[in-house]
Design goal:
Layout lengths: L1 E6 L8 H9 L2 E6 L14 E4 L14 H14 L3 E5 L1 H9 L3 E17 L15 E13 L4 E6 L7 E4 L3 E4 L7 H11 L12 H4 L3 H23 L1
Parallel strand pairs: 1-2, 1-3, 3-4, 4-9
Antiparallel strand pairs: 5-6, 5-7, 7-8, 8-9
Helix pairs in contact: 2-3
């Protein structure tokens, strides 16, 4: 596959997704959306991945490059490309599909369990994946589900944790691509901003959870393999 990633914040890169792509022999290109990079021609990609960031999907006045990024995401969806959005990426997808990204009433930070509903088993991309999973969260925004999109996972903190649109577009509110090294980097930059809350774990609580990383790593690989198989079916 030819995979293109939109990077919205310098430290929010592909992470372990890049490991999978390299293992499978896929080609990766990237655009730093926040630096107004150019975007590729759609015929030059099979899969688009939109990554996270510290900005809100609704903050176009503050981050005007979001306007062109949203236009490109919409074109990719209309061209029937496989599209995967993570955290901010999921909110941007929801926005361009007619949903609404907005500030949540609270933050969700740390390792929190999400539950996948019965709808997740009705799509090839999520079939045979775990029904519940401890995943890493780092967000203060959420989104309203667009028309024709189907919610496939949620939890107490955030009812829309994952959705799928027309079997080819996936949004994940959580971060399966972050490994322990990435969490250490995030804490070194943003650790002082993490304050106690109902759905907030402090760095000393969420760092060093090797068993969670292993489980999420298997989930991510299975999900991406399912996406690859779906594309080739």
């Amino acid at each position: 596959m030819k995979i293109h990633a939109l990077i919205n914040y310098s430290i929010a890169d592909l992470g372990t997704i890049e490991e999978w792509a390299n293992d499978e022999g896929h080609t990766i290109t990237t655009s730093n959306a926040y630096e107004n990079d150019t975007y590729p021609e759609l015929h030059d990609l099979d899969m688009l991945i939109i990554l996270g960031g510290i900005m809100g999907a609704y903050e176009e006045d503050k981050f005007p490059w979001l306007i062109s990024e949203k236009k490109f995401i919409k074109k990719a969806i209309e061209a029937n490309k496989i599209v995967l959005g993570i955290c901010l990426g999921a909110q941007l997808i929801a926005d361009v599909l007619g949903g609404k990204a907005l500030p949540h009433t609270h933050q969700e930070i740390g390792w929190w369990k999400v539950k996948f509903n019965s709808e997740s088993q009705n799509t090839p991309i999520f079939k045979n994946l775990p029904k519940e999973l401890e995943v890493f969260q780092f967000h203060g925004d959420t989104y309203e589900l667009p028309n024709e999109a189907v919610c496939i996972a949620g939890n107490t903190a955030c009812k829309n944790q994952a959705f799928i649109y027309k079997d080819r577009v996936v949004g994940l509110q959580f971060h399966p691509e972050f490994n322990e090294e990435k969490l250490q980097e995030i804490v070194s930059i943003h650790g002082d901003e993490v304050k106690p809350g109902g759905f907030v774990q402090l760095p000393e609580e969420f760092l060093g959870k090797t068993h969670y990383h292993k489980t999420v790593y298997r989930f991510l690989y299975s999900l991406l393999n399912n996406i690859e198989n779906h594309l080739n079916s």
